[in-house]
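Need the bound structure for 3-methyl-2-oxobutanoic acid, inputs here:
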Amino acid sequence: MTRPITIRTLNERRAAGEPFSCLTAYDATMATLAGNAGIEVLLIGDSLGMVLQGHASTLPVTLEDMVYHTRCVARAETPSLIMADLPFMTNITPSRTMEAAGQLMQAGAHMIKLEGEAWLAETVTALTQRGVPVCVHMGLTPQSVHALSGYRVQGRDTQQGDAMLKAARTLEQAGAGIILLECVPRELAGRIRAALSVPVIGIGAGPDVDGQILVMHDMLGATTGQPPRFVKDFMTESGSIEGAFRAYHEAVRTRSFPAPEHCF
Ligand SMILES: Nc1nc(=O)c2c([nH]1)NC[C@@H]1CN(c3ccc(C(=O)N[C@@H](CCC(=O)O)C(=O)O)cc3)CN21
Ligand SMILES: CC(C)C(=O)C(=O)O
Ligand SMILES: [Mg+2]
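Answer from helper R.:
Posting the output first, comments after.
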């Protein structure tokens, strides 16, 4: 196994201007194949509620579900950094969040991800003080799908965009090690990336960020229904799962993905 990917590795990639690839994974086999293909970060995403469990949103996913899949992925022989999502409503107080994050770390995660804005600052600080690296997921936060009236691009107007940038700065200050931006205009993502010194991962956020992430099923062409605009099927051109993982990793590394048609 090659050297493990750490947060330091991702910071070095950012400093060198070398984009890194991230992908969701929910089981040991796929995690091993993705790691073999060079994918730097594997996320046990609460998207598993939709792609594995068949729910219409991520809201029904429990902490137990996340712990189970994190254990599965963590058994993989892979150098990838393992990140796990905190599911809906496990962030109601800083202490509840820390207990939930503790379970995911003990299941094998190296970092946890939670959805929110500047109001998370206290929680982020408490987690990082206790040795739990944190990624904050901003922009389109799927756990708020009902509050947002659907899966819609966020930060389209200047006021919203400026507020998101300010919140990202606050969260970096609070100790966030990574910021993830979902479905934001390309120009805003680039502005946020430039305002921060930690790595920024994008999904539907354009090419001007440090890392890209997709849901595994989507990039394997296994989306049921209409895929989001930011999705590219790497399976059709590659013909095998490991080939698709390698093609995705290479496309991110060379900045040929995302292309303009994948951006807002
Ligand atoms: N298969 C799958 N892929 C994902 O990327 C994903 C999940 N599931 N489940 C959890 C969330 C939900 N996500 C979504 C779902 C839909 C859109 C979507 O349809 N977006 C519109 C934006 C329209 C607009 O405001 O302009 C699009 O056209 O892409 C985006 C993100 C991302 N996550
Ligand atoms: C789409 C990514 C960023 C995610 O949060 C998930 O898969 O749950
Ligand atoms: Mg998620």
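Comments: The first strand starts at residue 20 and ends at 24. The radius of gyration is 17 Å.
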